[in-house]
Design a protein that fits this description.
The structure is a single chain. The chain is α/β, with parallel strands linked by helices. Helix content is 34%, strand content 20%. It has six helices and six strands, in the order βαβαβααβααββ. Helix 1 packs across helix 2. It is globular and about 40 Å long.
Length: 163
Amino acid sequence: MPRRLVLVRHAQAGSAAVDADRPLTAAGAHRATAIGVWLADNGLAPSRALVSPARRTVQTWERTGGVAPALDPRLYDNTVEALLAVLRETPDEVDQLAVVGHNPSISVLVALLDDGQGDDAARRGSASGFPAGGVAVLELSTPFSAVSPGTARLSAFAVPGSD
């Protein structure tokens, strides 16, 4: 069964006294909705969504209209090690997984997992700063439990709602 990993950096957030409480801006809310449209238009319907408990990431995923999220505080840690640990706990029956988190860990994870054989435009897009509301899609060659460097192919990168 082919597996897809959809990595999303939360959309643009405003300010708050506590970082975890930062809400989406109006532009961020628009972009988050556009992410949901882009996912649907591209036949991506993750059956599981792992989301950082930060307000901006939860709001981003809620606006996509996707499956109810599982909040994982390790995603807020914003380290590649934490992301890999979370990915590797994904049950084998999951074929499409969305992870909504933060930079720099999201963009570093894309570069780490990519086998270098995927879409050149997607690679350039994801390497150019991975803006807020960016989405990378990786095709996995292993079960989620065996994800490691170079075991995925970057097939798409977009910043929905940016045009």
